[in-house]
Design a protein that fits this description.
By secondary structure, the protein is mainly alpha-helical. The protein is 77% helix and 0% strand. The protein has nine helices and no strands. Helix 3 packs parallel to helix 6 and helix 6 (136-147) packs across helix 7 (153-174).
């Protein structure tokens, strides 16, 4: 890989992670459910009294150790960019949005959710197309499929997503949250991200990310 192509891939990875982190901040502002892994992180965030950025990094370091022990094939530079940046940028974005929009209406929250989905898909397309490694959470399902031969990726990923949502909700309740607050971390936004993001990510892959990587307009 020549230096200019590597630099472009690194930029795309960094850009993708930043965009995805901002989108998570929007998801949290909407409070209508986040993606499955962030549902788990929301439960942990409610239970453990440290900043979200630091907590996200610690959890990802633990998941990284899992991959380094069992299957390090998909760990790369982008894995570390995600691990050390996404949590802190998410925390900053959410705090910024809450200062600007302290009491968002339901209509505004739904609009924020739709924007968050589009922004996350856009960022994910850049991150995935750069192909410099996957997130530590994605690596778990890949290990189960490629290393342990436990089944097809789409089914394993659904299983890991369901485990994250269930654990996140359980931890949230243990931390003092109520059943009425559950939709804020596992709601319509969670359903959308779990089942409907694929086509939109592929759209941005085809129309924006891959042409940029290949130098095409």
């Amino acid at each position: 890989m020549n230096k200019s192509l590597l630099a472009k891939r690194i930029f795309m990875s960094l850009f993708g992670v930043i965009i995805c982190a901002v989108s998570v901040g929007l998801f949290k502002l909407a409070a209508l459910g986040v993606d499955p892994f962030q549902s788990f992180m929301a439960g942990m965030d409610a239970l453990i009294p440290i900043s979200f950025g630091t907590l996200y990094t610690i959890v990802n370091i633990i998941l990284l150790l899992f991959s380094l022990i069992f299957y390090r094939k998909n760990i790369g530079l982008a894995t570390f960019i995600n691990m050390f940046l996404l949590g802190y940028i998410t925390q900053f974005s959410y705090e910024f949005f809450m200062k600007v929009f302290p009491e968002p209406s339901m209509v505004f929250r739904f609009a924020s959710l739709i924007i968050a989905v589009v922004v996350m898909c856009f960022g994910s397309a850049f991150y995935m197309t750069a192909d410099l490694g996957v997130s530590t959470y994605d690596a778990v399902a890949i290990t189960m499929v490629e290393k342990w031969k436990m089944g097809k990726f789409k089914f394993i990923r659904i299983a890991t997503d369901l485990v994250c949502v269930v654990l996140g909700c359980a931890i949230f309740l243990i931390s003092g949250g109520t059943w009425g607050q559950i939709p804020t971390i596992a709601g319509i936004g969670t359903i959308i991200t779990a089942f409907f993001m694929g086509p939109l990510i592929e759209f941005f892959n085809v129309t924006v990310a891959r042409p940029m990587l290949n130098g095409k307009k």
